[in-house]
Amino acid sequence: MPRVSSQETVESALRMSDQGVSDRVNADIHGAAIKTIRKWRRLYQRQGLPRLGSGYPATHCPRCDEADLNGSAYAHLLGWYLGDGHTADARRGVYVLSISNDPKYSGLSDEIAATMRLVKPTGSPCKRGGQATRIEVRWKHWPCLFPQHGPGRKHLRKIELADWQQEIVARYPDRLLRGLFHSDGCRVTNWTTRELKSGEIKRYEYLRYVFANESEDIIGILTAALDLLEIPWRRPRRNMVAVSQRAGVEALDGFVGPKS
Fold first, then answer.
1. CATH topology for 71-160?
2. Global confidence as pTM
3. Which of 36, 133, 173, 248 has CB 3.0 to 4.6 Å from 225, enough for a Cys bridge?
């Protein structure tokens, strides 16, 4: 008996096709055969058959169209983008924003997808498996929101925030830091030893946050946000920032916390 796809599935596949998603990727996402995706495109796009879900609203760009932008969500997504994200050209002038995350932290992957929807309300983020989970969403205007987009690795080129990005970060430094520490950072338990007056060597354990990135520019963005919140930090290595003082760790625990 042939499989019958819901109209919702057809509409979702056609929207992705409109946005430049390849037939193969579209088929994988919707659990359909490639020839089925092509058939839907032929029937609905080329022959002009009516679509029940046609007329879905486009997402207007906060930069080009002065549309509203959720500043808190954007600052959070910016942190993830600077740490483990990139944008890439797709087809027909569409770009894909991709954020990578460790598969064992499924809660964070869900959080990334939810944050993407807040920044692009009509977006439909999809998750791809492998050694890393990739959360992706497509839009023509990602380069408008992430002007750091460009060829090559981030640590090999200049990364600086535009004035309007700095204004958002100044309002939501905690959200930026959450994205940065959850992408290229961690919360770990360290230990040290101290000799007591009795001569006994006692071991002490303490929590600290660590962020590691090869881009000096991105490290500067992180430390500037820490300074805004008056959280003390230090540079134990060239490519690393650490927050070890108890007050600073407790502050970060309030809005970053361990990965989950």
1. Endonuclease I-creI (3.10.28)
2. 0.77
3. 173
